[in-house]
Design a protein that fits this description.
The chain is α/β, with parallel strands linked by helices. The chain has eight helices and seven strands; from the N terminus they run βαβαβαβαβαβααβα. It is globular.
């Protein structure tokens, strides 16, 4: 078995119904992965049986690993913790609802050596009219603040160079600005079409407020951070 070069972060909050599907989908993906991969579950204080199921999955296959929060901290914290714990060249991200496919990491992998962040753009989305409309509006507002050129920053399928990911100063809501934060580091970003599927189990933790109104406030936080962001390159050192 090749040493994994990509760790795929999966935030988990009350996803016991989806975990068997995740295990099956990734066990099918691992042998076909263009970049040798493993999974890092981040249990975000789940109140159902998710943590026990994660333990069992990890005991059965060493390509599944996990960390667990003592209480619910939110999606941004889960992603940040995954970045901090990564020990691979690249970090990936996918949602536990599997509305995107692990197999599509192979689409993103074709661009990883050229770009610092590669993100999916969902095609053929099966979401409700309200969800698709609010997502479209939120993306338009975000682009007007960040000028990142991304059409679907909420797509839960990304690969990022680990050193760039670890340098992102995360705060609540900033997971929507990952491409923009890579641009602040003078990195290169790319978006490519990926498949989208309806949620078949579990319950979404997002609604109109945190898809649309909440991100508007986050845009102002990003603008403040952009003005204050420190970016430097060491030309020479002797340590």
């Amino acid at each position: 078995m090749k040493q994994p070069e990509l760790v795929i972060i999966i935030p988990v909050y009350n996803e016991e119904e989806n975990l068997p599907r995740i295990q099956q989908a990734f066990e099918a993906y691992f042998p076909l992965a263009k970049i040798p991969s493993k999974v890092l579950f981040v249990n975000d204080g789940s109140k159902d049986d998710s943590l026990q199921m994660i333990r069992e999955i990890c005991n059965a296959n060493p390509l599944f690993t996990y960390i667990s929060f003592e209480k619910n901290c939110g999606l941004s914290a889960a992603i940040k913790a995954g970045f901090d714990c990564a020990n691979t060249k690249w970090v990936g991200y996918i949602d536990a609802d599997l509305q995107t496919s692990p197999g599509d990491f192979n689409i993103l992998a074709d661009y990883c050596n050229e770009y610092d962040l590669v993100t999916g753009v969902r095609t053929g989305r099966k979401d409700s009219f309200v969800k698709k409309t609010s997502s479209k509006i939120a993306n338009g507002i975000r682009r007007s603040f960040t000028h990142d050129g991304m059409d679907d920053t909420g797509c839960p399928l990304k690969i990022i160079k680990a050193d760039k990911a670890k340098a992102i100063p995360m705060f609540n809501g900033l997971h929507r600005f990952l491409p923009a934060m890579i641009l602040l580091q003078k990195g290169r970003i790319m978006q490519v079409p990926v498949r989208a599927f309806p949620r078949v189990a579990g319950k979404s933790n997002f609604h109109l407020w945190n898809r649309l109104i909440g991100p508007l406030g986050d845009c102002f936080a990003y603008v403040w951070m952009k003005r204050k962001y420190i970016n430097y390159t060491i030309a020479e050192k002797r340590l």
